[in-house]
Amino acid sequence: MKTHYKIAVLPGDGIGKEVIPEGLRVVKAAAQRFGIALELVEFDWASCDYYAQTGSMMPDNWKELLLPMDAIYFGAVGWPAIVADHISLWGSLLKFRREFDQYINLRPAQTFAGVRSPLAGRTAGDIDMLIVRENTEGEYSSVGGIMYEGTENEVVMQQSIFSRRGTERVMKFAFELAKTRARKHVTVATKSNGISISMPWWDARASEVASAYPDISWDKQHIDILCARFVLSPERFDVVVASNLFGDILSDLGPACTGTIGLAPSANLNPERRFPSLFEPVHGSAPDIYGKNIANPVAAIWSGAMMLDFLTNSKGAGHEAHDAILAAIKAVLISGPHTPDLGGKASTTDVGKAIAERLLA
Ligand code: GGG
Protein backbone atom coordinates (compact mmCIF):
# COMPACT_ATOMS: atom_id res chain seq x y z
CA MET A 1 0.00 0.00 0.00
CA LYS A 2 1.46 3.34 -1.06
CA THR A 3 1.82 6.10 1.52
CA HIS A 4 3.38 8.80 -0.63
CA TYR A 5 1.90 10.17 -3.85
CA LYS A 6 3.51 12.21 -6.60
CA ILE A 7 1.12 14.63 -8.30
CA ALA A 8 1.85 16.60 -11.47
CA VAL A 9 0.16 19.99 -11.32
CA LEU A 10 -0.66 21.59 -14.68
CA PRO A 11 -2.76 24.75 -14.25
CA GLY A 12 -2.86 25.31 -18.04
CA ASP A 13 -4.62 28.39 -19.35
CA GLY A 14 -6.96 31.16 -18.23
CA ILE A 15 -8.95 30.46 -15.09
CA GLY A 16 -7.13 27.14 -14.75
CA LYS A 17 -4.33 29.33 -13.29
CA GLU A 18 -6.80 30.80 -10.75
CA VAL A 19 -8.76 27.74 -9.65
CA ILE A 20 -5.89 25.23 -9.38
CA PRO A 21 -4.10 27.18 -6.59
CA GLU A 22 -7.37 27.06 -4.61
CA GLY A 23 -7.73 23.36 -5.35
CA LEU A 24 -4.19 22.85 -4.08
CA ARG A 25 -4.91 24.88 -0.96
CA VAL A 26 -7.75 22.50 -0.10
CA VAL A 27 -5.97 19.30 -1.21
CA LYS A 28 -2.97 20.26 0.97
CA ALA A 29 -5.25 21.01 3.93
CA ALA A 30 -6.93 17.61 3.50
CA ALA A 31 -3.56 15.87 3.15
CA GLN A 32 -2.41 17.51 6.40
CA ARG A 33 -5.59 16.54 8.26
CA PHE A 34 -5.64 12.92 7.07
CA GLY A 35 -1.89 12.26 7.06
CA ILE A 36 -1.46 11.80 3.30
CA ALA A 37 2.06 12.52 1.99
CA LEU A 38 1.90 14.41 -1.30
CA GLU A 39 4.74 15.55 -3.51
CA LEU A 40 3.45 18.24 -5.86
CA VAL A 41 5.42 18.91 -9.03
CA GLU A 42 4.21 21.97 -10.97
CA PHE A 43 4.71 22.38 -14.73
CA ASP A 44 4.02 25.49 -16.81
CA TRP A 45 3.48 23.56 -20.04
CA ALA A 46 0.26 22.13 -21.49
CA SER A 47 -0.59 25.78 -21.90
CA CYS A 48 -0.94 28.29 -24.70
CA ASP A 49 1.69 30.53 -23.04
CA TYR A 50 4.16 27.68 -23.48
CA TYR A 51 2.99 27.37 -27.10
CA ALA A 52 3.66 31.10 -27.62
CA GLN A 53 7.25 30.57 -26.43
CA THR A 54 8.04 27.25 -28.11
CA GLY A 55 5.52 26.60 -30.90
CA SER A 56 4.32 23.47 -29.14
CA MET A 57 1.93 22.82 -26.23
CA MET A 58 4.29 20.48 -24.39
CA PRO A 59 7.97 19.50 -24.34
CA ASP A 60 8.93 16.42 -26.38
CA ASN A 61 9.63 14.42 -23.20
CA TRP A 62 6.22 15.15 -21.59
CA LYS A 63 5.38 11.47 -21.32
CA GLU A 64 8.66 10.66 -19.58
CA LEU A 65 7.99 13.48 -17.09
CA LEU A 66 4.42 12.38 -16.34
CA LEU A 67 4.74 8.59 -16.31
CA PRO A 68 6.29 8.42 -12.81
CA MET A 69 3.39 10.46 -11.41
CA ASP A 70 0.52 8.92 -9.46
CA ALA A 71 -1.94 11.49 -10.82
CA ILE A 72 -2.22 14.66 -12.86
CA TYR A 73 -4.09 17.67 -11.52
CA PHE A 74 -5.08 19.80 -14.49
CA GLY A 75 -6.75 23.20 -14.83
CA ALA A 76 -7.97 24.17 -18.28
CA VAL A 77 -6.71 24.48 -21.82
CA GLY A 78 -7.44 27.03 -24.53
CA TRP A 79 -6.44 30.57 -25.38
CA PRO A 80 -7.66 31.21 -28.93
CA ALA A 81 -5.88 34.58 -29.15
CA ILE A 82 -2.60 32.59 -29.18
CA VAL A 83 -3.52 29.33 -30.88
CA ALA A 84 -6.69 27.76 -32.32
CA ASP A 85 -8.62 25.66 -29.79
CA HIS A 86 -8.30 22.40 -31.74
CA ILE A 87 -4.48 22.75 -31.76
CA SER A 88 -4.25 23.45 -28.02
CA LEU A 89 -6.72 20.69 -27.10
CA TRP A 90 -5.17 18.01 -29.33
CA GLY A 91 -1.69 19.14 -28.28
CA SER A 92 -2.30 18.59 -24.55
CA LEU A 93 -5.47 17.27 -22.88
CA LEU A 94 -6.46 14.86 -25.66
CA LYS A 95 -2.89 13.53 -25.77
CA PHE A 96 -3.09 12.73 -22.06
CA ARG A 97 -6.47 11.01 -22.43
CA ARG A 98 -5.40 8.91 -25.39
CA GLU A 99 -1.77 8.11 -24.62
CA PHE A 100 -2.47 7.37 -20.95
CA ASP A 101 -5.58 5.38 -21.93
CA GLN A 102 -7.81 7.42 -19.63
CA TYR A 103 -10.83 5.84 -21.23
CA ILE A 104 -13.34 6.84 -18.56
CA ASN A 105 -14.32 10.44 -17.97
CA LEU A 106 -16.43 10.40 -14.83
CA ARG A 107 -18.46 13.57 -14.30
CA PRO A 108 -20.91 13.89 -11.39
CA ALA A 109 -23.77 16.42 -11.35
CA GLN A 110 -25.67 17.12 -8.14
CA THR A 111 -27.97 19.75 -6.69
CA PHE A 112 -26.73 21.26 -3.42
CA ALA A 113 -28.41 23.25 -0.66
CA GLY A 114 -27.54 26.93 -1.13
CA VAL A 115 -27.30 26.68 -4.93
CA ARG A 116 -30.38 27.66 -6.90
CA SER A 117 -31.10 25.34 -9.81
CA PRO A 118 -32.46 27.14 -12.88
CA LEU A 119 -35.07 24.37 -13.04
CA ALA A 120 -38.16 25.27 -11.02
CA GLY A 121 -38.52 23.56 -7.66
CA ARG A 122 -35.31 21.47 -7.73
CA THR A 123 -33.42 21.45 -4.44
CA ALA A 124 -30.59 19.58 -2.76
CA GLY A 125 -30.50 15.89 -3.63
CA ASP A 126 -33.11 16.11 -6.41
CA ILE A 127 -30.47 15.79 -9.12
CA ASP A 128 -27.79 13.21 -8.41
CA MET A 129 -26.28 11.66 -11.51
CA LEU A 130 -22.95 10.32 -12.69
CA ILE A 131 -22.14 10.87 -16.33
CA VAL A 132 -19.68 8.33 -17.76
CA ARG A 133 -18.15 9.69 -20.95
CA GLU A 134 -16.13 7.45 -23.26
CA ASN A 135 -12.86 9.37 -23.45
CA THR A 136 -10.52 7.97 -26.09
CA GLU A 137 -12.40 7.42 -29.35
CA GLY A 138 -15.88 7.96 -30.83
CA GLU A 139 -16.45 11.31 -32.48
CA TYR A 140 -13.08 12.63 -31.22
CA SER A 141 -11.12 10.80 -33.89
CA SER A 142 -8.13 11.95 -35.87
CA VAL A 143 -9.26 10.02 -38.94
CA GLY A 144 -10.31 12.28 -41.77
CA GLY A 145 -9.13 14.99 -44.09
CA ILE A 146 -9.85 17.73 -46.58
CA MET A 147 -9.77 17.10 -50.31
CA TYR A 148 -9.70 19.59 -53.19
CA GLU A 149 -8.95 22.27 -50.60
CA GLY A 150 -9.58 25.81 -51.76
CA THR A 151 -11.50 24.76 -54.86
CA GLU A 152 -15.20 24.67 -55.55
CA ASN A 153 -15.04 20.87 -55.09
CA GLU A 154 -13.67 21.11 -51.53
CA VAL A 155 -14.89 18.27 -49.26
CA VAL A 156 -14.12 17.42 -45.65
CA MET A 157 -14.72 14.28 -43.64
CA GLN A 158 -13.97 13.08 -40.11
CA GLN A 159 -14.84 9.52 -39.12
CA SER A 160 -16.27 8.47 -35.77
CA ILE A 161 -14.48 5.39 -34.46
CA PHE A 162 -16.07 2.91 -32.07
CA SER A 163 -14.04 -0.16 -31.15
CA ARG A 164 -15.53 -3.26 -29.52
CA ARG A 165 -12.93 -3.05 -26.75
CA GLY A 166 -13.51 0.67 -26.19
CA THR A 167 -17.28 0.38 -26.15
CA GLU A 168 -17.50 -2.72 -23.98
CA ARG A 169 -15.14 -1.35 -21.36
CA VAL A 170 -17.02 1.92 -20.94
CA MET A 171 -20.33 0.03 -20.70
CA LYS A 172 -18.87 -2.33 -18.08
CA PHE A 173 -17.56 0.59 -16.05
CA ALA A 174 -21.02 2.21 -16.08
CA PHE A 175 -22.79 -0.99 -14.99
CA GLU A 176 -20.21 -1.67 -12.26
CA LEU A 177 -20.67 1.90 -11.04
CA ALA A 178 -24.45 1.45 -10.98
CA LYS A 179 -23.95 -1.54 -8.63
CA THR A 180 -22.60 0.89 -6.01
CA ARG A 181 -25.62 3.23 -6.29
CA ALA A 182 -28.98 3.14 -4.52
CA ARG A 183 -31.09 3.34 -7.69
CA LYS A 184 -28.93 0.96 -9.74
CA HIS A 185 -29.97 2.32 -13.12
CA VAL A 186 -27.97 2.98 -16.29
CA THR A 187 -29.17 5.20 -19.13
CA VAL A 188 -27.35 4.70 -22.42
CA ALA A 189 -27.20 7.77 -24.66
CA THR A 190 -27.65 6.88 -28.32
CA LYS A 191 -28.83 8.17 -31.67
CA SER A 192 -29.43 4.85 -33.37
CA ASN A 193 -32.37 6.05 -35.43
CA GLY A 194 -30.29 8.62 -37.33
CA ILE A 195 -26.70 7.35 -37.05
CA SER A 196 -27.67 4.04 -38.48
CA ILE A 197 -24.44 1.99 -38.43
CA SER A 198 -22.35 2.86 -35.40
CA MET A 199 -25.15 3.69 -32.97
CA PRO A 200 -27.25 0.49 -33.38
CA TRP A 201 -23.91 -1.30 -32.89
CA TRP A 202 -23.26 0.80 -29.74
CA ASP A 203 -26.74 -0.13 -28.46
CA ALA A 204 -26.05 -3.83 -29.15
CA ARG A 205 -22.84 -3.64 -27.05
CA ALA A 206 -24.87 -2.01 -24.25
CA SER A 207 -27.42 -4.80 -24.44
CA GLU A 208 -24.72 -7.51 -24.33
CA VAL A 209 -22.98 -5.96 -21.32
CA ALA A 210 -26.31 -5.34 -19.56
CA SER A 211 -27.19 -9.04 -19.80
CA ALA A 212 -24.35 -9.75 -17.32
CA TYR A 213 -25.95 -7.35 -14.79
CA PRO A 214 -29.46 -8.70 -14.08
CA ASP A 215 -29.77 -6.54 -10.93
CA ILE A 216 -29.17 -3.28 -12.80
CA SER A 217 -32.07 -1.73 -14.71
CA TRP A 218 -31.22 0.14 -17.88
CA ASP A 219 -32.70 1.98 -20.80
CA LYS A 220 -31.43 3.72 -23.89
CA GLN A 221 -32.50 7.18 -24.99
CA HIS A 222 -31.82 9.19 -28.12
CA ILE A 223 -29.52 12.10 -27.37
CA ASP A 224 -32.07 14.74 -28.45
CA ILE A 225 -34.84 13.65 -26.08
CA LEU A 226 -32.24 12.79 -23.44
CA CYS A 227 -31.09 16.44 -23.45
CA ALA A 228 -34.72 17.56 -23.17
CA ARG A 229 -35.24 15.19 -20.21
CA PHE A 230 -32.09 16.47 -18.48
CA VAL A 231 -33.96 19.80 -18.34
CA LEU A 232 -37.52 18.54 -17.81
CA SER A 233 -36.98 15.62 -15.40
CA PRO A 234 -33.30 15.33 -14.40
CA GLU A 235 -34.15 13.47 -11.17
CA ARG A 236 -34.87 10.31 -13.19
CA PHE A 237 -31.18 9.83 -14.08
CA ASP A 238 -28.66 7.83 -12.08
CA VAL A 239 -25.67 6.64 -14.18
CA VAL A 240 -25.62 7.92 -17.76
CA VAL A 241 -23.13 6.43 -20.24
CA ALA A 242 -22.35 8.21 -23.48
CA SER A 243 -19.92 8.44 -26.36
CA ASN A 244 -17.15 11.03 -26.31
CA LEU A 245 -19.11 13.90 -27.89
CA PHE A 246 -22.51 13.11 -26.40
CA GLY A 247 -20.86 12.74 -22.99
CA ASP A 248 -19.12 16.08 -23.38
CA ILE A 249 -22.42 17.80 -24.12
CA LEU A 250 -24.35 16.03 -21.35
CA SER A 251 -21.68 16.81 -18.78
CA ASP A 252 -22.06 20.55 -19.38
CA LEU A 253 -25.84 20.33 -19.52
CA GLY A 254 -26.26 18.21 -16.36
CA PRO A 255 -24.26 20.55 -14.09
CA ALA A 256 -25.89 23.62 -15.73
CA CYS A 257 -29.24 22.18 -14.60
CA THR A 258 -27.94 22.02 -11.03
CA GLY A 259 -27.06 25.75 -11.05
CA THR A 260 -23.60 26.28 -12.57
CA ILE A 261 -20.92 24.33 -14.36
CA GLY A 262 -18.55 26.07 -11.93
CA LEU A 263 -19.29 23.16 -9.57
CA ALA A 264 -18.66 20.31 -12.01
CA PRO A 265 -15.60 18.09 -11.42
CA SER A 266 -14.20 15.32 -13.57
CA ALA A 267 -11.91 12.33 -13.36
CA ASN A 268 -10.19 11.04 -16.51
CA LEU A 269 -9.46 7.52 -15.37
CA ASN A 270 -7.23 4.69 -16.41
CA PRO A 271 -9.01 2.29 -14.03
CA GLU A 272 -6.29 -0.37 -14.32
CA ARG A 273 -3.72 2.22 -13.09
CA ARG A 274 -1.21 1.37 -15.82
CA PHE A 275 -0.95 5.11 -16.44
CA PRO A 276 -1.60 8.20 -14.31
CA SER A 277 -5.21 9.38 -14.21
CA LEU A 278 -6.07 13.06 -14.63
CA PHE A 279 -8.42 15.20 -12.57
CA GLU A 280 -9.77 18.53 -13.86
CA PRO A 281 -12.78 20.80 -13.63
CA VAL A 282 -15.27 20.28 -16.48
CA HIS A 283 -15.12 23.98 -17.34
CA GLY A 284 -12.61 25.43 -19.76
CA SER A 285 -10.22 28.39 -19.54
CA ALA A 286 -12.97 31.08 -19.74
CA PRO A 287 -10.93 33.93 -21.28
CA ASP A 288 -13.88 36.30 -20.67
CA ILE A 289 -13.47 36.17 -16.88
CA TYR A 290 -9.76 35.38 -16.54
CA GLY A 291 -7.76 37.88 -14.50
CA LYS A 292 -10.69 38.99 -12.34
CA ASN A 293 -10.30 36.31 -9.64
CA ILE A 294 -14.03 35.53 -9.82
CA ALA A 295 -14.02 31.98 -11.25
CA ASN A 296 -15.75 29.42 -9.07
CA PRO A 297 -13.01 27.12 -7.66
CA VAL A 298 -15.42 24.42 -6.43
CA ALA A 299 -15.13 22.28 -9.59
CA ALA A 300 -11.33 22.23 -9.23
CA ILE A 301 -11.55 21.56 -5.49
CA TRP A 302 -14.03 18.71 -5.95
CA SER A 303 -11.79 17.28 -8.71
CA GLY A 304 -8.93 17.34 -6.17
CA ALA A 305 -11.15 15.39 -3.77
CA MET A 306 -11.85 12.79 -6.49
CA MET A 307 -8.10 12.53 -7.04
CA LEU A 308 -7.39 11.75 -3.35
CA ASP A 309 -10.18 9.17 -3.35
CA PHE A 310 -8.86 7.46 -6.50
CA LEU A 311 -5.26 7.44 -5.24
CA THR A 312 -6.23 5.31 -2.26
CA ASN A 313 -8.73 3.07 -4.13
CA SER A 314 -11.69 4.75 -2.44
CA LYS A 315 -10.49 3.47 0.93
CA GLY A 316 -8.72 4.82 4.01
CA ALA A 317 -7.28 8.30 4.28
CA GLY A 318 -7.93 9.35 0.67
CA HIS A 319 -11.56 8.34 0.87
CA GLU A 320 -12.00 10.14 4.20
CA ALA A 321 -10.30 13.21 2.73
CA HIS A 322 -12.70 13.13 -0.23
CA ASP A 323 -15.75 12.98 2.01
CA ALA A 324 -14.42 15.73 4.28
CA ILE A 325 -13.71 18.01 1.31
CA LEU A 326 -17.20 17.41 -0.05
CA ALA A 327 -18.69 18.18 3.38
CA ALA A 328 -16.68 21.43 3.52
CA ILE A 329 -17.84 22.35 0.00
CA LYS A 330 -21.46 21.70 0.99
CA ALA A 331 -21.13 23.82 4.13
CA VAL A 332 -19.64 26.74 2.19
CA LEU A 333 -22.31 26.45 -0.51
CA ILE A 334 -24.93 26.90 2.21
CA SER A 335 -23.36 29.71 4.20
CA GLY A 336 -21.11 31.37 1.61
CA PRO A 337 -18.93 33.00 0.43
CA HIS A 338 -20.19 32.61 -3.16
CA THR A 339 -18.61 33.60 -6.47
CA PRO A 340 -20.69 35.64 -8.97
CA ASP A 341 -21.91 32.57 -10.93
CA LEU A 342 -23.80 31.69 -7.72
CA GLY A 343 -25.07 35.24 -7.23
CA GLY A 344 -22.33 36.26 -4.76
CA LYS A 345 -19.53 38.81 -4.78
CA ALA A 346 -16.72 36.69 -3.36
CA SER A 347 -13.45 36.01 -5.13
CA THR A 348 -11.98 32.67 -6.19
CA THR A 349 -9.50 33.01 -3.33
CA ASP A 350 -12.22 33.80 -0.73
CA VAL A 351 -14.07 30.58 -1.61
CA GLY A 352 -10.91 28.44 -1.63
CA LYS A 353 -9.87 29.81 1.77
CA ALA A 354 -13.33 29.31 3.25
CA ILE A 355 -13.41 25.65 2.15
CA ALA A 356 -9.88 24.99 3.45
CA GLU A 357 -10.69 26.67 6.79
CA ARG A 358 -13.90 24.65 7.12
CA LEU A 359 -11.90 21.48 6.46
CA LEU A 360 -9.42 22.22 9.22
CA ALA A 361 -11.95 23.61 11.75
N1 GGG B 1 -10.79 21.66 -17.80
C1 GGG B 1 -11.38 21.23 -19.00
C2 GGG B 1 -10.91 21.96 -20.22
O1 GGG B 1 -9.95 22.68 -20.24
N2 GGG B 1 -11.64 21.73 -21.27
C3 GGG B 1 -11.33 22.32 -22.52
C4 GGG B 1 -12.11 21.65 -23.59
O2 GGG B 1 -12.51 22.31 -24.53
N3 GGG B 1 -12.33 20.38 -23.48
C5 GGG B 1 -13.02 19.64 -24.45
C6 GGG B 1 -13.22 18.26 -23.98
O3 GGG B 1 -13.13 17.95 -22.78
O4 GGG B 1 -13.51 17.42 -24.81
UniProtKB/TrEMBL annotation:
GO molecular function: D-malate dehydrogenase (decarboxylating) (NAD+) activity; magnesium ion binding; NAD binding
Cofactor: Mn(2+); Mg(2+)
Highest classification ranks of the organism: Bacteria, Pseudomonadati, Pseudomonadota, Betaproteobacteria, Burkholderiales
Domain Isopropylmalate dehydrogenase-like: 6-355
Keywords tagged on the record: Manganese, Metal-binding, NAD, Oxidoreductase
Similarity comment: family membership: Belongs to the isocitrate and isopropylmalate dehydrogenases family.
Coiled-coil region: none
PROSITE patterns: IDH_IMDH
Pfam families noted in UniProt: Iso_dh
E.C. numbers: 1.1.1.83
This protein's name: D-malate dehydrogenase (decarboxylating)
Annotated InterPro entries: ICDH/IPMDH, IsoCit/isopropylmalate_DH_CS, IsoPropMal-DH-like_dom, TTC_DH
Catalyzed chemical reaction(s): (R)-malate + NAD(+) = pyruvate + CO2 + NADH
